[in-house]
Specification:
single chain; 290 residues; alpha+beta; TATA-Binding Protein; 2 domains; 5-stranded antiparallel sheet; two-stranded antiparallel ribbon; 10% strand; globular
């Protein structure tokens, strides 16, 4: 068991941030996560002060606690890096232009969000599935694909779960089977993408050594991946923090608040963090400020 006291780390906010689709609440204070072939149970204690409620993270004197049910060794070797807990998000917030009231409000509202370091293969398939979909449906499709093609695993506490399927396994899946899982037109993209990766036409290990522009172009060679999806993969898997995915939520804010263009020059090295603050605020605040 590992206890984290950090007001800039909110599992409930990360769960609703649109970057991770295998993190789910199982009770009022408990969450379960599957990342590639790993399972983690999480408890959020003292929610009012830990930032569990929207907009509360960073506003209280007491940061609250997050309990990760894993060994210290597993935390140090995997989950610490996965949750990007080695970086200071307080510094990102402090660097926001003091005259940008909208971004400061959005960042304060979602200040428990972190950019996760997720598996690049899993994110490729995840964000193909995300196209023209809402978060609950995306989660359901990922669950169905993992149950059908992933390896059944058992956690240390006896919990059974399904690992995310490998490229080779999905490359063998007939398109008709994927369509039977209600993946729709995305089935063709997934088949083509899995085969290209399994055959080595796009090498996942090489993506990790590329800069943002090069990785983005390489990802767009895969069926069904355009610029926005490529940017999501660059940000949420390759951890390229200048990637800035633009969907309808983000474009609406850019048009209304920034004259259609985000001030990237002010946020070199952390534009993707600002994108998440904007996206989360627009999606979850219910405020008319935006």
């Amino acid at each position: 068991m590992v206890i984290i006291e950090n007001k800039y780390f909110s599992i409930p906010q990360i769960c609703r941030s649109g970057q991770c689709f295998r993190l789910d609440p199982v009770s009022v204070d408990t969450y379960e996560m599957v990342a590639s072939d790993r399972y983690l149970r999480i408890r959020v204690e003292d929610r009012a002060s830990s930032g569990a409620a929207d907009g509360e993270a960073g506003k209280k004197d007491e940061p609250g606690r997050t309990v990760l049910y894993c060994s210290q060794d597993e935390y140090e070797s995997f989950w610490k890096r996965y949750f990007d807990l080695e970086n200071s998000y307080e510094g990102y917030l402090a660097g926001i232009d003091p005259e940008d009231e909208y971004l400061r409000t959005a960042a304060q509202f979602g200040s428990g969000i972190r950019i996760l370091r997720q598996d690049v293969w899993e994110m490729i398939i995840t964000f193909i599935l995300s196209q023209q979909n809402n978060i609950p449906r995306i989660k359901g499709l990922i669950r169905a694909v993992s149950e059908k093609y992933g390896q059944r695993m058992e956690a240390a506490d006896g919990t059974l779960y399904d690992a995310f399927p490998t490229p080779g396994r999905l490359a063998e899946a007939p398109e008709e089977e994927l369509r039977a899982l209600k993946l729709g037109y995305r089935s063709r993209y997934i088949c083509g993408t899995a085969r290209m990766i399994a055959d080595g036409e796009v090498k996942l290990d090489e993506l990790k050594n590329m800069g943002h522009s090069e990785a983005r172009a390489e990802l767009m060679k895969l069926p069904g991946i355009g610029g926005k999806v490529a940017d999501c993969i660059c940000l949420f898997a390759l951890h390229q923090m200048d990637a800035f995915p633009v969907d309808t939520h983000i474009q609406k804010v850019l048009d209304s608040r920034y004259g259609g263009k985000f001030p990237f020059e002010k946020y070199k090295g952390c534009a993707g963090v600002m994108q998440q603050y904007i996206f989360y605020y627009d999606l979850n605040s219910g405020s008319d400020i935006h």
